[in-house]
Design goal:
Strand content: 15-25%
Number of helices: 8
Largest sheet: 5 strands, mixed
Helix content: 25-40%
Order of helices and strands: HHEHEHEEEEEHHHHEE
Radius of gyration: 29 Å
Distance between the termini: 36 Å
Shape: elongated
Length: about 325
């Protein structure tokens, strides 16, 4: 772990990754200083740590030009939506019900009794700003808050019904359709990253950032690889494994033993029955095979199929361990 820590420190120092920008209006990474009054402008209200993040990042958004901002339930508050509307910025986000205790929507116990696709909305005005809260029952109940969109016009979406074992059409509010159109990619990325996280603990806080950025980079590279190749693509696990092998072996001068286990007796009698073909030797990734470093040919006592031409040969690569 110490070696990995030193490597990460060296990479961060070599890349000169900034945590905060010289521009006071823009941070590279959220550092948790949103409750610090020195980091807030005099014209900005204190809406809490979650909403202050959105306020700080939205400083560069032009005012009163109907730009739209989307966020998840961690950032969504009623005060934030109203403030952005007064600045001429449209906003939409999922909502935690406990942040708006007096909202006039159905209780979750009542919604469980409703059929799939049921939705309702509540419209109100706060300081002259119209705000709409919409709830929709899919697999789970989701609540959204917006200052520019509501439930109508509703559309139909296809869902799979386990009880009927078939696909059915269920009503879908317009606000959900808009949210999925702009935030669906973020949720999908988080879901794919969660399959194979780099699970390494450290007391240094920036390790989490470094490993998260690496996970995002790998997933995006895998998606581009699938988009380009389309057929016979590797799974995400195999893709990550090949990247790991390539990073460990590429550019290194590694000489490994040519054989493992008991050596084969070359003076076997020709009358003995031919042995069955065993497991094929491991084929390293293309990046390793073509890095032109540490590939030395040696003569062995074993004659195996050449990976290039298919003929038997006693020459073997010390790095790839293939004939």
């Amino acid at each position: 772990m110490d070696n990995i820590a030193d490597d990460v420190d060296a990479i961060i120092n070599a890349l000169n990754i900034p945590i905060e920008s010289e521009d006071e209006n823009c941070d590279i990474v959220y550092t948790g200083l949103e409750n610090n009054s020195e980091k807030r402008l005099s014209t900005e209200p204190n809406l809490g740590a979650c909403a202050n993040v959105v306020l700080r990042l939205s400083r560069i958004v032009p005012k009163f030009q109907n730009f739209k901002i989307y966020f998840d339930n961690y950032y969504t508050t009623l005060a934030l939506v109203v403030y952005l509307a007064k600045q001429g910025i449209c906003s939409l986000g999922t909502l935690r019900r406990n942040r708006v205790p007096g909202i006039k929507l159905s209780d979750e116990k009542q919604l469980k009794k409703k059929s799939r696709g049921f939705f309702s909305e509540c419209l109100t005005q706060i300081d002259g700003v119209p705000v709409t809260a919409t709830e929709w029952k899919d697999n789970k109940v989701v609540t959204l808050l917006s200052n520019f969109s509501g439930a109508e016009p509703a559309s139909e979406v296809t869902r799979f019904d386990k009880k009927k074992n078939e696909h059915i059409s269920v009503p879908c509010p317009n606000v959900v359709k808009i949210y999925n159109q702009h935030m669906g990619g973020v949720d999908l990325l988080d879901s794919i990253i969660a399959r194979y996280l780099i699970a390494m603990r450290s007391k240094k806080w920036y390790f989490k950032l470094f490993f998260h950025f690496m996970d995002v980079t790998i997933v995006n590279a895998w998606l581009l690889y699938r988009k380009r190749k389309k057929e016979n693509t590797m799974s995400l696990a195999d893709f990550r494994r090949e990247i790991a092998v390539s990073l460990c072996m590429q550019g290194s001068n590694i000489c490994t033993p040519t054989t493992r286990g008991r050596k084969r007796n070359i003076s076997e009698s020709p009358s003995e029955p031919k042995k069955k073909r065993g497991i094929q030797p491991y084929m390293p990734p293309t990046d390793v095979r073509k890095d032109q470093i540490g590939h030395f040919a040696i003569v062995t006592n074993l004659r195996e199929r050449c990976k290039l031409c298919g003929l038997k040969s006693s020459m073997q690569c010390t790095k790839c361990r293939n004939n």
